[in-house]
Amino acid sequence: MSNLGLLRRKLEREKNARREAERLLEEKSLEVYHANQQLLELAEQNRTIIESAAEGIITYDQEGAVRSANRSALRIFGLSLINGVYLNELFELTTAASYGLLFPEESNSTVRGGSVAEFDGHLPVEIKGLRNGETFQTEVAVGRSAFGQVTLFTAVVRDLTRRKKMEARLRQSQTMESVGQLAAGIAHEINTPIQFVGNNIHFLRGAFDDIGKLLDLYDQLTSAVREGHDPAELVDEIDRQVEVADLSFLRDEFPAAIEQSLEGIDRVAVIVRAMKEFSQSPSEVESAFDVNRAIENAVAMSASVFREVAAIQTSLDESIPTVLCMGSSLNQAFLNVLTNAIEAVSNHGEPGEGRIVISTKLNNVNQAIDVCFQDNGPGIPDEIQHRIFDPFFTTKDVGQGMGQGLSLVYDVVVNKHGGAVSVTSPPLCGTTIVLSIPLKPAELPVRREHADAVGRF
Amino acid sequence: MSNLGLLRRKLEREKNARREAERLLEEKSLEVYHANQQLLELAEQNRTIIESAAEGIITYDQEGAVRSANRSALRIFGLSLINGVYLNELFELTTAASYGLLFPEESNSTVRGGSVAEFDGHLPVEIKGLRNGETFQTEVAVGRSAFGQVTLFTAVVRDLTRRKKMEARLRQSQTMESVGQLAAGIAHEINTPIQFVGNNIHFLRGAFDDIGKLLDLYDQLTSAVREGHDPAELVDEIDRQVEVADLSFLRDEFPAAIEQSLEGIDRVAVIVRAMKEFSQSPSEVESAFDVNRAIENAVAMSASVFREVAAIQTSLDESIPTVLCMGSSLNQAFLNVLTNAIEAVSNHGEPGEGRIVISTKLNNVNQAIDVCFQDNGPGIPDEIQHRIFDPFFTTKDVGQGMGQGLSLVYDVVVNKHGGAVSVTSPPLCGTTIVLSIPLKPAELPVRREHADAVGRF
Amino acid sequence: MKGIVFTELIGMVEATLGDEVADRVICGANTATDGAYTSVGTYDYQELISLVEQLACETGQPEAALVQSFGEYLFQRFLAMFPQFFDGVDSSISFLPTIEDRVHVEVRKLYPDAELPTFACKLANDGTLVLEYQSKRPFADLAEGLIHASVRHFQDDVSLVRHNLGDQDGTQARFELTPTLNQPNDTVASACQT
Amino acid sequence: MKGIVFTELIGMVEATLGDEVADRVICGANTATDGAYTSVGTYDYQELISLVEQLACETGQPEAALVQSFGEYLFQRFLAMFPQFFDGVDSSISFLPTIEDRVHVEVRKLYPDAELPTFACKLANDGTLVLEYQSKRPFADLAEGLIHASVRHFQDDVSLVRHNLGDQDGTQARFELTPTLNQPNDTVASACQT
C-alpha cells in the first residue's frame, strides 16, 4: 500500500503540475492577446496618421511592386488602386540611375534592431512622377526595411506641382516686377523734360504772337515804302513794338528754347526706347543681342533712382560681338543686378558716396561676354552669399521694395543660357557680380534646379 | 496489482498531458515572440515614417500635455525637447475657441475597433504657432484616440511660414507686375507724341531761322527808312526772302505746330502722371483718394493696350466724395480688374467688338463707393468663379502674360479696406465685377485669409 | 477540438463510473494520445467519438444519450469554472445568445485558432428563441445537453424542440425554446436583438 | 527559478535513488507546491534549497556536493534536450561563452521575465577562460557542476579553479579554465572575443 500511496501522491503532483502549466498557458495567451491589441492599436494609430498625412507614402518590394499606399499617394498619382502597380507606372524611370534612386543600398548609419526603415542616410531626390499620362515633379525620400528575407522600401512622396507652379508664377511675376518698381522713377524722369518742353513751347507760342504782330507791321512798312507813302509813323510803331516784345531777347531765347526742347524730347525718347526694349513681351526665341546697348538701357531706366544715390560709370568694350540669346530676359537680369547694386549703396553709404561700375568684356577662355557689376556697398556676408539666389531669400521684410529678383538672374543666366554667375564680396570691399553670357547658345545640360546648383558658389 | 497498473497508466497520462501543455506553452511563447517582433518592426517602420515626415506630428493628453512628437515637430516649434510641454506653449491659444480646436469631440464617423485616431471628421484648422517667442502660421489636423480610459489626441502640424511668405512675396510681386506688363504699351503710347513733338520743334527751328533772316532785313529796312536811305533794294530783297521762306505758310503752320506739340506734350504728361500716381511706393497710410481720377488713370495707363481691342467707356459720378484709403493699392486693384476685362474681350471677341464700361456711384446703403467693371467678354464659367481670387489660379498656362492678379484685388478690397468684391457672369452676358470701397475705413475684422472667405462669393 | 472537452469527459466518467471504467474506456478507445489530454491542447474530434463508443460499450447506453448527458455535465462544470458568464443572466433565452457574443469572444482571445461551432439565435415574435447550431463536427447532441442543462439551471418555463437540419448528421440543428407561460419578457428581447 | 530545474532535480532523484526516496524528499521538504512542478512554471528558489536539504538528510552527502552532482546531471539533460546549442562546438572554452550569447537569448525569447544568472567570460592572454558567475541566488555550486560536466563532455585538457567572490555565499564566483597542454587554440580566441 505504500507503493499505492506513493503513486497516488505522484499522480496528484502531476495533475497539479499539468493544471499549473495549463493555467500558465492561458495566462500567457491572455497576456499575448492584450499585448497584441495594444500593438495593433498603436499600429492602427500610426496607420491613421500615415493615412492622413499630406505626403504620399508607399511601400514596395525589391521587384518594384507596390505593397501598400496611403490616401495621399492615391491622390498624388491619380489612382484609385495602387497595390501591385509597378514603380515605372508611377515614376518616369527612363534611366538606370533614376531607377536606382528608388532602391537605395543599405545605409551605414545605425540600424536599430537590424530591420528598421532608415531614412537619414538618403536625402530626398527629385523624380518626375506620372499622373494620368502626364509628368509632374515629385520629391521622394526612400527608406529600406528588412523583414527576415523580405526587403521592403518605403517612399515618402511629395507632390511639388503646386510649389513648382508657385515658383514659376513668382518668376514670371518677378520678370515684370522690376520695371513696375521703376515706373515711378521713370515717370518722374520723363515728367521733368516734359514740363520744361511744355513751358518752352508755351514761350514759343507767345513769342511767335509778338513776332507775328511785328511781321504784320513790317509788311505794312514794305508796302508803304513800295508805294511811296511816308513810313515814319510805321517805323515809330515798329520801334515801339520791338521794344514792347523785347525782340532781341526773343531772338536770343528762341533758339535756346528750341534746343532745350529738343534735348528734353531726346531725353524722353531715350527713356521710352529703353522702356520699350525692356518690356517687349518676353519671348524665348533667341536673337542677336547687343549687350552694351542693354546695359545703357538699364542705366537709362534706373537713372532717376540712382542719380541722388550713386555715381554710375560704364566701361563698355565696344568691340564685343552680339550674342544669340533671349534678349528680354537678359535685360531683366541686368536691371535686377543693377537695382540691387543701387540699393546696396543707397542703404548703406552717405548720399553721393555710392559708386557703381559696369563693364563688359570678351572672355576668350570661356567664349563668353562677362558683364561685371561692382559696387562700393557694404558687401554680402559670407554666411548668406549662397542664399541670395533663393527665390524667397531677402534680407529685408517683405514689402520693402526692391532688392530681390536675384533668383531670376540665376535662372536666366545659368538655366536659360548655360552661363555662369559669380559673386565675390571681400570684407569692406563691396560686391562684384559677374554674369557670364556664352557667345553661342550652348547645348544646355539637363535644366538644373536651384537647389542642385548651389554648390557651385 | 490491477489498481497499481491503473494508477501507473493514469500517472503516465498525466505526465504526458503535462508535457504537452508545457510544449504548447513554449510553442505559444515562441509564436508570441515572433509576432511581437513583427509588430514591433511594423511599429518601428511606422515610427520611422512618422519620424521622417515633413509634417510635425504630436500626441497629447486631455490636459494638453505633449506625450510624443516627431523630429519635424521639434524643428517646427524650435524645441529640442517637447514631451511634457503644454499646448499653450506651442500655440497661441488666446480664446477658448482656439483651445477647443485642439480637443475635438468624438466624431460620428466610423470608428474601427473603438479606439482609432479619427481625422476624417475634423478638417485642418489654421492656428498661430509659437516658436522662440514669435508667432507663425500653422495648419493643424487633430485626431482623437481612446486607449481604454486614456484619450490621446494626435495633431498633424504643417508650418505655413514658407507658404505664407511665398504668398506675401507673390502678392508684393504682383503689385508691381501689372505696371511692368503695361510698360511696353506705355512706352509706345508716349513714343508717338514724342516723335511728332520732336518733328514739330525741328520744323520750328527751321522756320525761326528763316524768320530770323527776315527780321534782320526788316531791321535794316527800318534803319534805312529812319536814316533816309533808299529802301527799294532792301524791299526787293525782303520780297524775295518772304517768297523763299514761304512766310505765309510758316505763319499758318507755326501755330498749328505749336498747338500740336502742346497737345502731344499734354498726352505724354497725362500718361506720365497716371504712371506716377500708380507707382507711388506703396504706403499703408490712408489718405483722401479720388476714385474717379484713379479710374481715369487706369484707363490712361492701359490706353495703348485696349485701343485696338475694345471701346472703353466711363460713366463716373462726379459727385462722389473722396475716400480715406490706401490709394496706391486701390490703383493696382483697378488696373488689375481693367486689364483682366481687356484680356477677356481681346482673347475672345472680334477686334473692335470689345466693349468695357466702368462706372462709379455712391452706394448709400453700404456707405461705400461701388466701382463697376462690365465687359462683353465670354464670361467666367460657374465652376471656376469661386477660384478666380486664388493667388495661383489661372485659366492659362504660366508665362502667357496678364490676366492673373485678381487675388490682389481681393486682398486689397476685402482684407485691406473691409470692402466687398462681387462677380456676376450670366451665361453669354460677359462679366461684371463690382468693387465696393467703404467711405470710411471700417473697424476691420480679424484679417481674413483667402481660404476662410471664399464662401462669400 | 479543444482538450477541455476530453479532460472533462474523462473527469465525468471517473467521477460517475470510477477510475477503472475510465481506464477501460481510454484503453479500449485506443486513441493516438492514449488518454493523455491537456485542456489547452487541441485534439482530433474522432478521439472523442471513439471514447464515447467505448463508453457506450461499457454502459450499454446509446451514444446520443451519453453525449447529451455529457453536455449536461459540461454545463455544470462551466457554471463552476466560469461563473462570470452567468452573472446577471436569469434565463436560457437571455443566456444562450451570449454564447456567440461573449463566451466565444473570450475563448478566441485565448485560442485564436479554435474552431468553434456557431449558435445563431433569433427571437421570434411569439417570444420563441430559435437557435441554429452549426459545426464542422457532429455534436448537436452535446449542444442539446448543454441547452437542456441551461433550461434546468435557470428553471425556465419553456419547451425545447430540436429539428435536425442539413445532412441530418448532427452537424446542423435548429433548437426552439418556446415559453410555455405567457410572460412578457423584455430582457430577453433586448438581450437577443443586440 | 524556472520549473525545469525542479522537474529535473526530482527526475534525477527518481532515476538514481528511486521513487520512494524522491517521494520522501518531496514530502520532507514540505514546500508550498508539494512537489507539483511544471517546467514552464516559475517557483521560489527556496523550495529547491529545501529539496536539497532533504536529499542531504536522505543520502548523508553534503548539500554542495549534491548540487554539483545535480549540475552535472543537468548538463547531460540539456545535451539531450537542446542538442542545437552544442552543434559545432568542441570545447568548454568555446562553449561556455555561448551561454550568455546564445542560450540565454533563446531562453528569454520563451520567458522574457526569466531571471537568469550572468556568465561573464573573458579569455586571458595565456588562453585561460575566466568566467564570472553572478546570480541573485546562491547556486555557484550548480554552475560548477555544469562546468565540470562540460569539461568532461568535451574532454578538455584544462584545470578548473573556482574562487568565491563577494559575500562568499554562492551568489558570485570566478571560474578559471586553464589549458594544461600548450596548444594554440584559435577557435577559442575567436569564440570568446565576439
Describe this structure in words.
The complex is a heterotetramer, with 2 copies of chain A (457 residues) and 2 copies of chain C (194 residues). Chain A starts with a helix and ends with a helix. Chain A is an alpha+beta fold and 457 residues long. In chain A, a hairpin with a 5-residue loop joins strand 1 (56-60) and strand 2 (66-69). Chain A is built from 12 helices and 12 strands. Chain A has helices at residues 2-52, 71-77, 96-101, 161-227, 232-245, 247-278, 291-301, 303-306, 327-348, 382-385, 406-416, 450-453, and strands at 56-60, 66-69, 125-131, 134-147, 150-159, 287-289, 310-316, 323-325, 354-363, 368-375, 420-424, 431-438. Chain A is rod-shaped and about 180 Å long. Chain A folds into 4 domains: 1-45; 53-159, 2-Layer Sandwich (Beta-Lactamase); 163-282; 283-457, Histidine kinase-like ATPase, C-terminal domain (Heat Shock Protein 90). With 194 residues, chain C is an alpha+beta fold. Chain C has 2 domains: 3-61; 71-190, H-NOX domain (Alpha-Beta Complex), CATH 3.90.1520.10. Helix content of chain C is 52%, strand content 14%. Chain C has helices at 3-17, 19-29, 45-59, 63-81, 92-95, 97-110, 140-154, 186-193, and strands spanning 118-123, 129-134, 158-164, 172-179. Chain C has a 4-stranded antiparallel beta sheet. In chain C, helix 1 (3-17) packs across helix 4, helix 2 (19-29) crosses helix 3 and helix 4 (63-81) crosses helix 7 (140-154). Chain C is globular and about 50 Å long. Chain B binds chain C through residues 2, 6, 9-10, 12-18, 20-21, 24-25, and chain C through 7, 19-20, 23, 26-27, 33-41.
